[in-house]
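Still learning folds. Look over my entry:

…
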Amino acid sequence: MDMDIESLRSFIACVENGSFTRAASQLHRTQSAISMQMKKLQQDVGKPLFEKSGRKLHLTQDGHTFIRYARRLVRLHDDTLASMRSSEHITPLRLGCPDDYAETILPALVNQLHQHWANLELDIHCMSSNRIKDALDQGELDLGIITRSPGSEEGLLLYHDQGVWVGTPSSQVPLPLAIFQRDCRFHQAATEGLMKQERAFKVIANCGSASALRALVKADLAVGALARSSAQDLNIITHSGLPALPAIEVVLIRSNTTANPVKEDDLRTICDAIQLID
């Protein structure tokens, strides 16, 4: 027994409309075409599916059984096609982003990526710039937001930023610090700068996220060192005698793997569109 999906659709329409005429109108077919479809369908099934009562169609007992299967078959057919079609042009992309830029640069970048690839499947991994570079080298990421020193040619420029001290100016000895992990430029600049000044300090926390660092500073447990763009509503400390923190450049960089969907021209187009460059 062979049953085509369109015959099943017509059968469902006949049941829901109560007549071949209304089903034909709904499906934009002629009544004779629908009648022929239903005749062949009943021949294929080998049992009558309809019985007439006046002008109205009623299902036989076999028809009641068959309608349940017909609906399931049509739904399965449509779901299968929709699933296959939606996966035809999926572009998987693995993006690395330092946590301190997740609230600033990341939303603009994600917006541009989705505009560039209509069916993008994006995985975002928050980690430090050094870990992102390692993951790019090993082919574990396709694209990464990292920081570089001014003048470096690594990646394509997104944004100029500046390290700042945040919190309430403190004369505590030792000075309590909340800073990022040891592989962060601001961690190194803050600790080495204070040591050169021979100023006593105590790191109360090496933070893996900007939100954790800001929470400690807001609670007046420490002063912090982070990028100006990540300071949000924290007080920026000036004229305190604290060592200067470096300027940095935030850039977008890609891996060189052949499977990477982001080509060099794509990278330039996306960076230009973000419009974050000073």
